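Lab notebook page, bench 4
Experiment: in silico fold of construct C2
Operator: M.H.
Input chain length: 357 residues
Purpose: comparison with the prior construct
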Amino acid sequence: MPASRYRGRMNGPLDTGSPARDGFAMPAEWAPHARTWMCWPCRPEAWGSAEAMLRAKQVTGRIARAISTFEPVTMAARHEDAAEAKLATGGKAHIFETPLDDSWARDTGPTFLRGPAGGRGAVQWQFNGWGGKYESFANDAGLASRIAREADVRLYDASLVCEGGAIHTDGEGTLLATEQCLFHAGRNPGLTKDEVEQRLLRFTGARKVIWLGKGFSDIETDGHVDNIACFVAPGRVLVGVPSSPSLPDAKPVKEAIRRLREARDAEGRALEVIEIVQPRRVRFDWRGRILQASYVNYYLANGGIVMPAFDDPHDEKAQAVLADCFPGRDILQIEVLDLVQGGGGIHCITQQEPAAP
């Protein structure tokens, strides 16, 4: 385990113990939130140019304002970007000044936990720039510590390279993840599959991992599950299905669906698979890669959903699917093509902090 790197309001070193042992577990995303954490874009390399990043900032501001209609938003931003972030969010977000390398709060922020008697905790995963794809990531590697201190929660130091977008939970002991991501050579090359799985369970408090395979076209994150599938309730999984069987993701998604239908969750339940058809139009990002436009990459806020639109004929149909999955929630749909050019969507730039009891 790495040596302690952080001392904060917990009045002690960063905890290298076991959340599962201490009764902590990762709650479902539909559990009540205290607030949403986001990060202000600051790496032009992700979008290819400062002009493209500016367009992504505008989308980020719109998403923050939309979420703020449901719950408080805290936007992490570098000191030199704080005024810009405050202006773009229309004063709807609290600005948390802190060093940053990039803007994906889901991946570099803490994975929050709930513990005994309603206590709260968090995990700081080992972060290495998505398997070494970026050279500068030291600020992001310590972001979870700084957010946990601001949120005043107990922080655990995980002995696993992982990102928040690589895992999803039903809040009742089951995780979804892809083998492509967590067994990638750049992340955990010295660990066996069983060792990776045991560390996931140890630090999330889950009891079972359902592995969704490999072969997905997303090489920026190596197949983060939050672009592929997510729980919408215990026993119910939403899966993004390519609009054509000729697309590169059609085969791995078909395999993921097969695995889900054959699996049982931590409670022994069979899983209902709900299919949501991905955008019909196939686009490419500034690098020439297939644009990772996914309707699964949405954010659940208190009483609402902030979901993507892609200027696509399937946008309205996707909204209807989510409305059926989450009856009674208000849905705000935001055009995110400029954001997704950087490699992630609405879920990727957000991280929920669970409400205190």
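Observations: The chain has one domain: 33-354. Residues 1-13 have pLDDT under 50 and may be disordered.
Next step: discuss at group meeting.
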